[in-house]
Specification:
mainly alpha; single chain
Length: about 210
């Protein structure tokens, strides 16, 4: 079953699960479905914001209590965690607010922040603000795209319209991935071992 069929079949529970685990694709399709009257856009945004907030808060707590163990057991997470650590040093506030929009850091990002010295209360507030902004922006984008396609293609069959909506969502996701994909990250980390170790020692050692 593809994502569109999954959202149509399960409705808001699918939005909740998708927003908890991944986010953009499920929320965009749910917004488009709301434009066609299958869901309430307000409910989609609320469910997405709450599920995303809970998910990132849980990943933050996992990082706080089990982060070092996870990095040892799953070495593939280390480059992403280090990327977050370095970004925290330079862009503390905007990073936490925008972590959902950064490709490849949806789960690893909050875990790495949990390993840092960021107080849980600060992350709680910023995580909530970021979750609401993300849900409104992405859900609204899917909703607007669905309406725009329906208006421009009123004579097109409903199944064809749904297919075009999915095509538009796929194009947006491809652009999002291309924009936020790490270019040459591993090479930069390898070229500066002292900076890498310093970042680990400074950021991941909580007071």
């Amino acid at each position: 079953m593809d994502i569109a069929s999954w959202v149509q079949s399960w409705g808001l529970p699918a939005v909740a699960v998708g927003s908890f685990l991944e986010g953009e694709s499920v929320l965009l399709i749910a917004g488009a479905a709301a434009a066609r009257g299958h869901l309430s856009i307000q409910a989609v945004m609320v469910v997405a914001a709450v599920a995303s907030f809970i998910g990132d808060q849980l990943f933050f707590l996992i990082g706080r209590h089990y982060g070092a163990t996870l990095l040892t057991r799953f070495p593939a997470l280390q480059p992403r965690a280090l990327r977050v650590a370095l970004l925290l040093e330079r862009h503390h506030l905007p990073l936490i607010l925008s972590i959902r929009f950064l490709y490849g850091l949806r789960v690893a990002g909050p875990i790495a922040i949990g390993m840092s010295r960021v107080p849980w209360s600060r992350f709680l507030v910023l995580n909530f603000v970021g979750a609401v902004f993300w849900a409104v922006l992405i859900g609204g984008l899917g909703y607007g795209t669905g309406h725009a396609l329906a208006y421009a293609l009123q004579s097109v069959d409903a199944d064809e319209l749904w297919g075009l909506a999915l095509l538009a969502v796929s194009i947006f996701l491809a652009w999002l991935i291309a924009r936020h994909s790490p270019r040459g990250t591993s090479g930069r980390e390898g070229a500066h071992p002292d900076l890498t170790q310093a970042a680990k020692n400074h950021i991941w050692r909580r007071k």
